[in-house]
């Protein structure tokens, strides 16, 4: 059953969630560069997932505990200890990547980010409230609701400098529903991963399961698309490390969810993503990018939001 994580303070778990989220912008930058050089973001996503799968296969072969956990999953499904759909949680990550490839050019990064975060925040509240794939229900207390609201304001503020206002909102509404739904599904992915990790005895078990499902989904997408493979691959080795950051994010999330719940994990991850993006823009900016005061203010507000949502509330039922 689930690991004993009670000894880990919630505030520390939230900080770890922020650290995990901080790897996402790095992964996005790497995968984005790979997609640009390949001129094929779908293939780049499949290669990223495939690289992570190769690493996790080696880990499972090298670590008996992880190997036993993976082999335990089919039996757990047969005994109805684990719903089979939980093993497909990795396809949600694939959906998010494909959604990004499909609509970022239409929406822009700012609107896309706001839509995804809105979905993540809503799913965190929902999955915690119903206890989806978790041992306890975490009621949407005033602290959590205010923290969730503040993080939405923070992301809008951080992204506001990217809004151009050149297109009417009606044209953005339908495309924005896709990342909103993808973000909404992400909360269920985190909760399902935590359950798979608990049944398998290690968060790395859930990571293997995720990379198998996500890689299969993306390979199918590449094959269905029907375009040929490039004649030559980029030579920079670091372009193929995106899967490693995915391992950190998936395994870390699966380990933390049982202690924090999906909402605090999501808010901490969002704060980490904002901080990581800010650091990249400061120290390794892409051509034409700059750091605005609103981006800094939004990042600081996100930290306040995660602190508020993760602080223990005396007398509250967690």
Gap from first CA to last CA: 19 Å
Mean pLDDT over the full residue set: 82
Computed structural class: mainly alpha
Q: What is the overall shape? A: globular
User: Which regions contain 5 or more consecutive residues with pLDDT less than 50?
Assistant: 1-5
Question: β content, as a range?
Answer: under 5%
The portion of residues assigned to helices is: over 70%
Order of SSEs: HHHHHHHHHHH
Q: What's the total count of β strands?
A: 0
How many DSSP helices?
Answer: 11
Task: Write up what this structure looks like.
- The structure is a single chain.
- Mean pLDDT is 82; it is low at 1-5.
- The protein is mostly helical and 318 residues long.
- It has 11 helices and no strands.
- The longest helix has 42 residues, at 242-283.
- It has helices spanning 10-21, 23-38, 41-62, 64-78, 90-107, 109-130, 142-159, 169-200, 203-225, 242-283, 293-310.
- α3 crosses α10 (242-283).
SSE diagram, text form:
Elements: H1 10-21, H2 23-38, H3 41-62, H4 64-78, H5 90-107, H6 109-130, H7 142-159, H8 169-200, H9 203-225, H10 242-283, H11 293-310
Keywords:
mainly alpha; 11 helices; globular; single chain; 75% helix; 318 residues
Please summarize what this structure is.
This protein has 318 residues and is mainly α. Helices cover 75% and strands 0% of the residues. The longest helix has 42 residues, at 242-283.
């Amino acid at each position: 059953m689930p690991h004993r994580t009670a000894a880990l303070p919630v505030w520390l778990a939230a900080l770890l969630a922020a650290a995990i989220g901080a790897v996402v912008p790095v992964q996005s930058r790497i995968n984005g560069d790979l997609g640009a050089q390949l001129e094929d973001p779908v293939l780049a996503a499949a290669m990223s997932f495939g690289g992570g799968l190769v690493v996790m296969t080696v880990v499972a072969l090298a670590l008996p505990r992880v190997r036993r956990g993976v082999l335990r999953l089919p039996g757990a499904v047969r005994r109805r200890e684990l719903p089979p759909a939980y093993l497909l949680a990795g396809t949600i990550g694939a959906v998010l990547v494909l959604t990004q490839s499909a609509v970022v050019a239409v929406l822009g990064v700012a609107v896309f980010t706001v839509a995804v975060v809105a979905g993540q925040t809503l799913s965190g509240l929902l999955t915690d409230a119903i206890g989806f794939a978790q041992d306890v229900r975490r009621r949407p207390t005033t602290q959590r609701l205010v923290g969730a609201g503040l993080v939405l304001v923070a992301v809008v503020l951080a992204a506001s400098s990217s809004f151009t206002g050149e297109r009417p909102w009606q044209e953005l509404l339908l495309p924005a529903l896709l990342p909103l739904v993808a973000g909404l599904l992400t909360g269920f992915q985190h909760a399902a991963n935590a359950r798979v990790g608990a049944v398998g005895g290690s968060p790395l078990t859930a990571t293997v399961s995720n990379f198998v499902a996500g890689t299969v989904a993306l390979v199918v997408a590449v094959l269905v698309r029907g375009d040929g493979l490039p004649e030559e691959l980029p030579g920079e080795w670091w372009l193929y490390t995106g899967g490693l950051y995915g391992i950190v994010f998936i395994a870390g999330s699966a380990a933390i969810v049982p202690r924090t719940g999906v909402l605090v994990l999501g808010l901490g991850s969002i704060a980490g993503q904002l901080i990581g993006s800010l650091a990249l823009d400061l120290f390794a900016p892409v051509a034409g990018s700059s750091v605005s005061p609103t981006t800094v203010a939004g990042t600081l507000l996100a930290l306040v939001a995660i602190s508020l949502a993760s602080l223990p509330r005396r007398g509250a039922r967690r």
